[in-house]
Amino acid sequence: MLVSDFDFELPPELIAQQPPAERGASRMLTLSRNSGAWQDSWFEDLPALLQEGDVLVLNDSRVIPARLFGVRPATAGKVEVLLTEQVSDWEWRALVRPARRMTMGQELAFAAPDGEELLHATVAAHGEFGERLLRFKPVEDFFARLEVLGHVPLPPYIRRPDQPLDRERYQTVFARRHGSIAAPTAGLHFTPGILERIRARGVLITHLTLHVGLGTFQPVRVPEVSEIRLHAESYSLPAETALQVNRALSEGRRVVAAGTTTVRTLEHCATIGRMEAHTGTTSIFLSPGYRFQVAGALLTNFHLPQSTLLMLVSAFAGREKTLAAYRHAVQTGYRFFSYGDCMFLT
Q1: Is the whole-model pTM more than 0.85?
Q2: What are the tens digits of pLDDT across the range 68-108?
Q3: Which among 179, 216, 238, 244 is least buried, having the fewest CB atoms inside 10 angstroms?
Q4: Of 59, 86, 1, 85, whose CA–CA distance to 265 is shortest?
């Protein structure tokens, strides 16, 4: 298969630049992977589409304000940093600008609006994808300081600076564990009220964690699907989630994955035979031909043309059915990408 087999026409005006006025007020396109039939609905209809005994799995990773603006103390030159992955207590992989100035030993300082320096880092190594390894001076409450200094790392297709509203809306209501540089966007639609309605249906809600990393910003640069390689991302599968997923599968009940990050984590664990409590990393790439072992339904947003996430959805529902549904979504004005509308694939 060619990457170009997953292309479609997307008018720029359909790329959502703002979240909906109210969380959960998104449109939802349902798609049957058996028949290919679709139906226009709303996200608030999701509880009625779930079944008693379903296990709904959510990704509880928390987006950090990972974009930092600082200076090189030696020259007062401005720098921009995007933290992409925590390597150890005080070391982070990061994308930096201007990259050519970020040589080994280069020091970076990040100050609060009042001028107080809150974080200080040194370039410790160069990475194979152009990133740098930054070593921060130990401080108390690193993430609290990051909240003061950092900006929400909105995706590049949102062509505006981050706003105070993004602190709330580019974060799921169940986010708990710091580490992502992009939101698990299918989870952005859920509200406490909708989660309660889902529980009232007899659906068990459980969580895992996958921290979205550098790969989410990387376009596909190879012509053939078989050549695609993804960056590894860290995940954690809790004991309770493993227990409930295993029980559901053994009893023939449905596992519903909220988001591509969730489904990738579940399928990775099944592929390596570790549907048990553990932590690890995954670079699993799901494309047409993959046989899903865990997910029986998938909630997901609309994805970029020729993207690995569109290929994942096509693996679940079939390429032709998926692209036909996407064409319908374009024709009827669905909003695309992180702040956009969603699909429910059954």
Answers
A1: yes
A2: 999 999 898 999 999 998 999 999 999 999 988 888 999 99
A3: 238
A4: 59
